[in-house]
Amino acid sequence: MPEVEDNRSFSTAGDSSELSSENTLFGKYEVGKLLGCGAFAKVYHARNVRTGQSVAIKAVSKQKVLKGGFVEHVKREIAIMRRLRHPNIVKLLEVLATKTKVYFVMEFAKGGELFTRIARGRFSEDLSLRYFQQLIAAVGYCHSRGVFHRDLKPENLLLDESYNLKVTDFGLSAVKEQIRPDGLLHTLCGTPAYVAPEILAKKGYDGAKVDVWSCGIILYVLHAGYLPFNDPNLMAMYHRIYKGEFRFPKWTSPDLRRFICRLLDPNPDTRITVDEIIIDPWFKKGYKEIKFHEEDFDFKEESQGKKCLNAFDIISFSSGFDLSGLFDEAEPSVRKELFISEERPEKIIERIEEEVRRSENMKVKKKRENGIRLEGHNGNFILAVDIHPLTEKLVMVEAWRRDFNAGTSDGIWEEAAGKMFPAVADSTYRLR
């Protein structure tokens, strides 16, 4: 998830049964109106008390998660959202926890659900194309990170204040690690009207190809104003999906007909791919590739590096209070080390840069006065270092490594954590 900013907080008091507009969560977020409800979560609008920024807070009940058997779903959703940082994907800002709830603090999409806009009437072909281009940009990015959404539909597409599309709800998503030896996924999931025919066949499926099918359904709905496959008899609807039997409205242009037919090809082997989509003549009309600077490890807030950590902050860094122990124990691609040093932050950064210059495996991606980001030369890992003042003479050095290639050697991490940081100063101590 891009990684979650490591602003973990924990409550020592008992939870209130529900969030309300009278609550201030952890003294940081003033909670407002309820935006929506799910099986084991509620989503609220909230405001960051210090910055005034609007956020959405998803409050997940641990009790309901355990009773419903959704622990792995929540773990996976956290792990996946920590991988993703894209302009057309809702950003996970931080995760907070109490004894009874886990709170996802997310980017607030002021424009609401795309579904609400479609319910008012179908879109023009140009507007349908605009949103479809943004959808494919997000989906293609997910696939490049080994993430398959598996529940794409208008209800899971939000709009920001400028009415740009934002993909959300990764609760049913899968990652490459779930692919079986046959190279396919096998979990049956999705929303009936958007499910791909190969999922109905129960013989395994390619996660990227089922996402493309769902994107095809969404494009049809945007343009037509209704579903291509819709029947009160579920088995009859599944039969039509399996056969790929649907009709176009009379206002559909020939180019769009051809394009949608390639998306809704019932044969996954011949269905259009994301790479083919982006070079299709209909899709390319007015298309501008989205360029952005992805930060898989965002720097902490500017003020955080300028104040000394208190006892509560230090405790929150310890392994016993690490949120990953609650839900996210299944992401071995992330490693972390903590050190204490008497060296000045700028000197630490300088010495890290010296080590990088000697290394053939790393390069500096970005730096600030209280942190630095390193990247593998082949892009297979990110190493993030943040420096937190403890006292006037001591700092805490927090180092993260995030692998994007399961085969990345631990030797690279040992080079950084075992050689680079103890070499920073004679008075450097590893905490864990």
Automatic annotation (TrEMBL):
Its cofactor is Mn(2+). It is an enzyme of class 2 (transferase). CDD domains: CIPK_C. It comes from the Eukaryota. Residues 1-20 are annotated as: Disordered. Residues 9-20 have a biased composition (Polar residues). Residues 29-283 form the Protein kinase domain. InterPro entries: Kinase-like_dom_sf (IPR011009), NAF/FISL_domain (IPR018451), NAF_dom (IPR004041), Prot_kinase_dom (IPR000719), Protein_kinase_ATP_BS (IPR017441), Ser/Thr_kinase_AS (IPR008271). Residues 304-328 form the NAF domain. It catalyses: L-threonyl-[protein] + ATP = O-phospho-L-threonyl-[protein] + ADP + H(+); L-seryl-[protein] + ATP = O-phospho-L-seryl-[protein] + ADP + H(+). ATP binds at K58. Its EC number is 2.7.11.1. It holds the Pfam family Pkinase. Keywords: ATP-binding, Kinase, Nucleotide-binding, Serine/threonine-protein kinase, Transferase. Belongs to the protein kinase superfamily. CAMK Ser/Thr protein kinase family. SNF1 subfamily. This is non-specific serine/threonine protein kinase. It comes from Hibiscus sabdariffa (roselle).
